[in-house]
Each structure stands twice: as structure tokens, then as C-alpha cells.
What does this fold into?
Amino acid sequence: MSDVSVLPGSLAVRNLFEDLLGREVTVSPGDPLSADEIKTATVAIFTDAGQKIYAVMGMQLSLAANAGAALGLLPAGAAEDSIDEKQLFPNLAENVFELCNIFTSLLNKEGSPHVKLYQVIYPGMELPGDARAVLLALGRRLDLMVEVNRYGKGKLSLSLAP
It folds into this structure.
């Protein structure tokens, strides 16, 4: 087995969100999550079979809330309330966890190590230092602005571990 680590393309990310949420999603190039934004972001840590960090994905609170509400078929107001209170409500967090788990399919490629979702860190929880370093690292990364139709938008940053 060779190490064929490949970032998913923005089209693959859009298709995954659209298929999962059942609505139009617009994806465009975006800025990386800043260190300050990580404090309120939802962060997914993906590992290989040896529990080594493979990739880290961060979603700005607004994207996590909007995607979580859309996935749960909740009104957009549920996401807005969550954003206003600067926390991801438990029902939205549960939906975002599923989104992160399904996102793993974009990281698994034939001939590459099997990648799985290890942990999801929600706003207010402590992000491990090694995961934070990978998320903020330059290099193999994808930074997007994702807009969920009739809900709202937010940043998504994905960074592969060196």
C-alpha cells in the first residue's frame, strides 16, 4: 500500500454537501480559519489505522450551525439562534457529527491508508495542540466558503497532516 494522500476537490465537497443536505450548495475558494475562529469552530480529526492524525477539518460556527440545521430539516432560525449564542446546540452538533463522519469518504482513496473519523471537537471544547497545528499549517490544505441555500454560509478548512 502506498501513501497516496490527496485533498478532495471543491466539486467533491460541494457534491457531498448537496447530496447529504438535499439542497443546493455553493462552494467557492475561501480564507483559512484563523486562530481566533478555531475557538468557536467545529473541528473533525481524522486518523489512519495507526491512530496517527491524517487530516483535520474545521468548520466555522456559522457553517456548522447551518449545515446541522439543514441536515435535520430544521428551520434556518435554529441555526441563527445557535450562531447568536456562539455555541452549537446539541441537536445541530449530532447532525454535524454525521456530516463529518460521511466526509471521511472523501479522504479514503483506493491504494491509500484507511482513514476514519477519530473525534469531533465542538465550540468551547479544548482542541488538542497537535490537531490545532495541523489545521493551521500551510501546505496541503483546502479552504472554502460553503453556502447552504436558504440557510447561510461559513468557512471550511481542511488540512492534511505532513
